[in-house]
Amino acid sequence: MIYIYDGTFDGFLTCIYQNYYDAKATKIYRDEAWQMNVLEEHLHITTDPDKATRVYKGLHDRLSEKALEEVFYAFLSNDSDKENYLMDFIRLAFKVGIKIDSMYSHAAVLPIREIVQRVMSEKHRFMGILRFKDTGSCLYAEYAPDHNITGLLAPFFCERLANERFIIHDVRRKIAAVYYKKWYLTDFELSQPLSITSAEVEIAALWQHYFDTAAVESRINPRLQRSCLPRRYWRFLTEMQHKSKPYSANIVVNDKIQISSFS
Amino acid sequence: MNVMEKLKILADAAKYDVSCVSSGVDRANTAGGIGSSASSGICHSWTADGRCISLLKILLTNKCIYDCKYCVNRCSNDNPRASFTPRQVAELTIQFYRRNYIEGLFLSSAVEKSPNYTMENLCRAIFLLRHEYKFNGYIHVKAIPGADRILVYRLGLLVDRMSVNLELPTVLGLQQLAPQKTYSALLEPMSYISNQILAFPHQSGRTKERSFVPGGQSTQFIVGATPDSDWTLINATQKLYDKFNLKRVFYSAYVPINEDKNLPALTNQPPLKREHRLYQADWLLRFYHFRAEEILDKANPFFDPDFDPKITWALRHPELFPIEINKADYRTLLRIPGIGLRTAQRIIKERRFSMLGYHNLKKMKAVLKRAQYFITCQGRYYGDVPPEPQYIRQALLTPNSQMSIWGG
Fold first, then answer.
1. Fewer CB atoms inside 10 Å of the end CB: C or N, chain A?
2. Residue B157: phi, psi to the nearest 5?
3. Helix (H/G/I), strand (E/B), else coil: A29
4. Residue of A153, A163, A219 for testing the chain B interface, max B β-carbons within 10 Å
């Protein structure tokens, strides 16, 4: 039986529940990723928070904090087969409990560990390469991460920039983490471009300047630079604007601060 | 002179300092403050030379009374000179920080007027940043040799890392290239800082409390400005780790910027390969429980350009290999070329449940290209040549030569 769900974490956990109490799932797909297959039966799963909570509690009771985190991180990845890897992982986890933490090369564990590694390293990378722009009323950062890490990044910046207001906008998934004293995750699209201050332009120019000066001429090594900082991130980076087609649909430069809708 | 021009001069003068580390301190933000510190360290960008930018690395001033031959800021150079005010440094740091350009500040300085005068200015800038701007991000400051201890102490309570650059590993080199400096004057603040670090209670975990230089102290050697051997450098490094509990020793391949009869010609390329080998050896000292005398000795004073120091060591000790990965203890596993810290930890964890085979190692990301010649899995050797140094050496240099027998 193929299970189809709505793409939410609760929906996925409902699939896991159903799989134990109903027909065993052979595969689980998000509705947008699934393609009709005449050979196998399929079932649309309606998300049920109660069932999801029961599965979550079960995992929480049987697994270590670390393994539970791995389940969640893997779910946030953009891997097209993540649900099926996760299903194998969770089945094994219910069987062996905390022992799963010491396993590595097991066929049901290794793919998850690798997926989690990718998500964690992207999260860590963006802790460094996310760039905020001052709009006068808040700091605004736009980016297009491979994995759905906005919710993982937000707490880090909330602590660091506790006295600021900020928006971290994932333009690929059209979601944002919005912070003013507390943070929340929301669907987000800008109806009109944001304006930034002239002070912002000045600081960005200083940074650009610093960045260009910091390289030692006799050690120039573009290949090393690209392997540390892949090209696909450049268009969002303040210091790379002149080297790559900038992503600027959401920004206009303006001396007067106009937007105040965010408060 | 505006801030832009100053930044250009004072960033350019600071870039030959290679340390740009923001790790080792786990600090939470304080109420009303800005910034935190992550123990892993965070890189914020990578410049065209492929090195990471983590900290805003600038000099407070490049006006210098010294005339060290190798240094871009020596007083005999006809460079434009500039100084930041403490307020400018603080403002720049905060503005860069809140846009997430940087992880913190690395403030260094040339010696203007006197060591004490310079150190006081450094203190002022950092004090402003920590107290008025309530900045809780990472700060690395250069301690100025010859400055009063009380200044070193005051500054040490505010910053995360302090460093004194030795630059040259021998007294003779120092006499030739930095005639106004003496070794004892350089080592004095190092030993003072190291004693203070030990005197403060050790902090573990995430904390808002300040202690004395919680990120430890570091230093830097220039590589290739003097004829000193790798053995001299690595031996000096070992002594610094032993004696002063240093966190890091950095190596900077010498970039010829000045002309002097005691220096290599301006046309020389920086010895990047040598610098790379030194860092590999440094890692062996810090994480792999090697000693300097195991890596190099008087008879072999330079690194082998073809092989990394771990392989070189392994090839010199065929009597210890191959090692059975199901039995060897952690420290022995770390000695196997192609097995790093993470792989060794995975092996230890996983072999509690089952005997490990060659296929497990593959999945654990061991570098089997190298490791195959130095291990057995459940008694079996998987290398494609006999486990003897001369064959292994050949196989590592020409990885696919054995294929040719079959015409592939």
1. C
2. -75, -15
3. strand
4. A219
Q: Is B395 left (phi over 0), alpha (psi -120 to 50) or beta?
A: alpha
Taking alpha carbons only, the member of A224, A229, A28, A29 closest to residue A125 is A229
Q: Within an 8 Å CB–CB cutoff, is residue A107 touching chain B?
A: no
Residue B358's contacts (CB-CB under 8 Å, 6 or more residues apart) are: B368, B377, B380, B382
Please report residues of A whose CB lies closer than 8 A to that of B272: 219
Q: How far is A13 from chain B (nearest CA, A)?
A: 29
Residues shown for chain A: 263
Count Cβ neighbours within 10 Å for each residue of B273-297 and write b for 16 or more, e otherwise.
ebbebbebbbbbbeebebebebbbe
Domain of A163?
Answer: 130-253
Q: Which of A213, A224, A225 sits opposite B11 (nearest CB)?
A: A213
Whether residue B257 is contained in a domain is answered as yes
User: pLDDT by residue for chain B (408 residues), tens digit each?
Assistant: 899 999 999 999 998 888 888 888 888 888 889 999 998 999 999 999 999 999 999 999 999 999 988 888 999 999 899 999 999 999 999 999 999 999 999 999 999 999 999 999 999 999 999 999 999 999 999 999 999 999 999 999 999 999 999 989 998 888 888 888 888 899 999 999 999 999 988 767 777 777 899 999 999 999 988 889 999 999 999 999 999 999 999 999 988 888 888 888 777 788 889 999 999 999 999 999 999 999 998 888 999 999 999 999 999 999 999 999 999 999 999 999 999 999 999 999 989 888 999 999 999 889 999 999 999 999 999 988 988 899 999 999 887 655 544 443
The answer to whether residue A231 is domain-embedded is yes
Rounded-to-10 torsion of CA B304, B305, B306, B307:
50
CB within 8 Å: B29 and A162: yes
Q: Which domain holds residue B52?
A: 3-203+210-295
| Strand, coil or helix: B236 | helix
Q: Is residue B69 part of a domain?
A: yes
ipTM of the complex: 0.89
- Tally of domains within chain A: 2
Asked, for residue B408, whether it belongs to a domain, the answer is no
Q: Per-residue DSSP letters for B265-326?
A: -TTPPP-HHHHHHHHHHHHHHHHS---HHHH-BTTB-S--SSS-HHHHHHHH-GGG-SEETT
